Structures are given as structure tokens and as C-alpha cells.
């Protein structure tokens, strides 16, 4: 019957192992795209994604393939590969019955792959292992096969040898998907229950939500309800995703498709939400829905105060297609008017900052990111604080709580020692340590989120040579001895440089902060005192010595065009400077904390 000829699958792969190249091979092989239409990496079509080499937003595409005289529909659901987006990955996996595990035959399994693999196994997905890049002379298939067998317990002959470059293995992969991945289960006659696993924003069509129908049927013009947001819509257009949108009159249990229903902003469509009919709704929503909440906050300010309204317009536009971005107006004594923004993580923050600069040509200053805190005041009230400079003075504070995460770190046995040290250094508590194989262990730590938003992930990667993966969820708030550390430039406090820090770390941190700022702030016409303070107590100081600089001195003779060029260059350089009191502070100084070692 109908459902028996549907296969829904995703791809689990480490960055650069060839996910996009192999997916393209399958698309060409199934004639989903013609050779002529073939662009490099059809699946990651955002410029930014290509440059960063990660798939930021998941997409889906349907291929038709004939096998033993029967035509099958293969739905490939693409997944992002970064911990900031792990909730989206989990929803995509939930929409599938199988997963291709693609491993670079010259590299072997990387830890990053493992946590997504576990997620897939947890959801009972059929795993199809593929060794890619078999065309390369330095491929070590036996070694990598041993790793795969060790990890998922498959047979050696189950591992497909492939090459995205030559096309080797593409047909076998398609056949294996049809043979091994079970067709979707579900009842087409039950009330409609569809899982939203992604959404995209299109400036002409509004928000397009991608879903998989678990049970029931959906027709064009049906009146539907999104269960968790409790909003009703008309299904103006439904269809399947090929290279573009292919409208259909009806979709049924097992199908992966899209719906356009006049939704104008991404906020209304929540990944993980359930679509059902207003009449005859399903008794239960799809399980596992979570509201994604920002984890990290930072201020974003225009370098030029006149650009404030443009910045607001740009943020509004970004939010239309990125529901996980939040922002509200904020004023800083040092930086003027801007916005306090909430992000899923540091990568998300960097992406937003880059998009503001590239797509909207905005020149912005981003302040040091921080987490949110609970301030319990002496009068018994509680205040949620999103900005260190908004922390009430210690005289009115009873105690501060900070968010904690439960982190799972999977690594090779060799790196356990250094990773333990890193976590303990970040005020972590070891909860558990399990050996997954003789070579691979999982460490469970409770860690303050505030300690890991800075450079934890980068440090983890570098001390493990990339051979460690991190997954975490916020487990709750805990009281901590935190103090507010302020920075003063020539005696004036710069609110945008305030941080909350554990009392025991305040002195060394203040000292390093002053040293770093001394490196970053250029000499000016007068001495600049850089001080770190906790409350009214100065705990560190550095001085940037005065220097009289004459930029035109470098122009020998009187070549006026050279002189002008030099002055213009200096003016451009200045654009990235912010006047704080009488001191000019370069943009990157506001992120000094991130650059400290
Ligand atoms: P992300 O989208 O960044 O996660 O990477 P990906 O896993 O999609 O990898 P991608 O397909 O972009 O391939 C990474 C690099 O490996 C590219 O330079 C490809 O040209 C190359 N590549 C992919 N498959 C093969 C292969 O089978 N053989 C060889 N020689 N190179 C390959």
C-alpha cells in the first residue's frame, strides 16, 4: 500500500565528511535535479552556511526512485550539526525511520558524530553505515570499519563503500535505504497529527512550515490548529519539497511536506509543535515538544547612534525568519541606545552579528555575552537579570543564583585527564563517568552555564584535538558567590564592560581584563587609566601611555592625494571606535573577555 513505499531518513555526519556531496549524488541519480541544475551543495543554500561549513537550518527534499519495478518516495531530512541547534536535530530525527551514518574513510569516526548517532539510536532509527571518500589513496577502510562495527555492532559487509566525488556507492545507498529503513507507521484514518520539524521564512510566501504526518490526512483548505501555540489557520497550500515547492491536494500519514497558511512571522511556528484539525483534533500532541529559550544574552549597539532605527528594522527582519532570536531595547551609558538580545548559544550570536553586517550592512558593537541570573533581594523579591550592569547593588542583594547545565562529554580515553581539569577549572562537578567502549568514555558534569558560554567549546575541541563532543541541557538554577566586576576608564565606569564573576576568580580575572584592554585600546593624546573594581574597591590597574600621533608624518613630501587617502583610512578605522567619556574604545575591546587566556 501507499505507506510501504515511503522512506524517511536523515544523514548523520561530521563536518566535511561529505554529507552534501553524497546527498547531491543521490539527487542527481534520482533525477530530482538535472545535471544542469546541479549547483554545488544544493542543500546548504545560504551563503553563510557554505562559508562556515555547517548546515545551520535543516531542510527536506523528496526523491523518487524505482526499485524492483516499484516506485518509492525517499524523503531526505537534513539536520544541523551544532550543539546550539540540538533541539532541531532531535525533532528532525523524530520525523525519520532511518539514518545514513556517513564517515570519511580517511578520517574515521569523529566524536561530534557520536551524540547525534545516539540520538538516532534512541529514536529507534535504522542506521545505514557508509564509508565516504573511498576514491582517496589514503583511505583506511579496515580501520574505520572496525570503529563503526565497535560503535553500532553491524556486520562488515553492511558498510557501504562510497565516493561523493566519483559517484561510487550512490545506487547502493538508495537501494539499501529502500531495503532496510522501515516504512513509516501510523494510521491514515486517525485524526490528523503532524510534527513540525522545521520552518523557513520566504519573503513572498511568509513562513513555510515543514512537517511529517504521523497519523491522519491533510487537504488543501483544511482548517488546522497548531496545538502548542493554540492558533488556527487555513491550509492555503500544502505540498511536498522537491527542488522547489510542489503543491498537492492531499497528504497522508508517513508523508513529509510543507504548509503555507498566511503566517507572517517565524515566532508563530514552533519546531516540535503538532498540527491537527480544528474539527476532530488528535487526542494527544506529538511528545517531546519544548519551547526553545535563549541561553546567552548580549547587547548589540549601532556604532553610529544615528543607525539605531535601521538596526531595529534589521533585527525585526531577522526575527521574522529566526524565531529563536529575541531582543528588547536597552540603554547603556557607554554605548547609547541598542538592544539586549537573546541567543541559543555563542555560534548563534556570531551568526546574527554576521548577518547584520553582511545582509543589512550594519556596523554594530556586540557586548560580552552573559547568561541570565536570579537576583534574590533583601526585601524578599526576585529579579531576573539579563545584563550584569543591571545587577542590583550588593547592599540590596540577598543572594544570586546562576543557571547550571548537565553536560555530557564523549571523548577518547586519552583525553579524559585534560578534560576533567578543564571542567574542574570551570567550577564543574563530576557526576558520572562511563566507558562506552575500551577507548571511549562519557563524562557527565554539572557546570555553570556562564562558565561555558565563553570559550569552553573551543578549549574542549583544542585539548582533545577535536575528539570530544559536547551535549547539554539546562538543569536549573543554583546559588553562587558571584560579584559584579566593573571596568573604569579614566575613572568612568563603562557599563558595557561589566561582568558577573565568581568571587574566587574576581582578582585574577580583573587583572587579566585590564591587561587585555591595555593591548586593545590604542594610545591617545593623554594617559588612560584602566581599572577593575568590585563594588567601590579597585582591584587592578593598567595605564595606556599618552602618545601624540601625526598620521600625515608618514607622507614624505607633500603628495596631497596620498595624504588624503591616509586620512580617509584613519577615518574608516575610527568608525569602529566608540567614544566612551573622553576615551576612544575600539569595537573589539567590548569582547575582550572572550579573547583572554
Ligand atoms: P558540511 O556541509 O560542511 O557539514 O560538510 P559536508 O559533510 O556536507 O561535506 P561536503 O559534502 O561539503 O564535502 C567536504 C569536502 O570533501 C568538499 O571539499 C568535497 O568536495 C570533498 N568530498 C566530499 N566527498 C568526497 C569524496 O568522496 N571524495 C573526495 N575526494 N572528496 C570528497
From TrEMBL:
It holds the Pfam family EFG_C. The keyword GTP-binding applies. It is a peripheral membrane protein. Keywords: Cell membrane, GTP-binding, Hydrolase, Membrane, Nucleotide-binding, Protein biosynthesis. Its EC number is 3.6.5.n1. Required for accurate and efficient protein synthesis under certain stress conditions. May act as a fidelity factor of the translation reaction, by catalyzing a one-codon backward translocation of tRNAs on improperly translocated ribosomes. Back-translocation proceeds from a post-translocation (POST) complex to a pre-translocation (PRE) complex, thus giving elongation factor G a second chance to translocate the tRNAs correctly. Binds to ribosomes in a GTP-dependent manner. Residues 4-185 form the Tr-type G domain. It is found in: Cell membrane. CDD domains: EF4_II, EF4_III, LepA, lepA_C. This is Elongation factor 4. GTP binds at residues 16-21, 132-135. It is an enzyme of class 3 (hydrolase). GO terms for biological process: positive regulation of translation. It comes from Tangfeifania diversioriginum. HAMAP family: LepA. GO terms for molecular function: GTP binding; GTPase activity; ribosome binding; translation elongation factor activity. GO terms for cellular component: plasma membrane. PANTHER family: TRANSLATION FACTOR GUF1 HOMOLOG, CHLOROPLASTIC (PTHR43512:SF4), TRANSLATION FACTOR GUF1-RELATED (PTHR43512). The lineage of its organism: Bacteria, Pseudomonadati, Bacteroidota, Bacteroidia, Marinilabiliales. It catalyses: GTP + H2O = GDP + phosphate + H(+). Belongs to the TRAFAC class translation factor GTPase superfamily. Classic translation factor GTPase family. LepA subfamily.
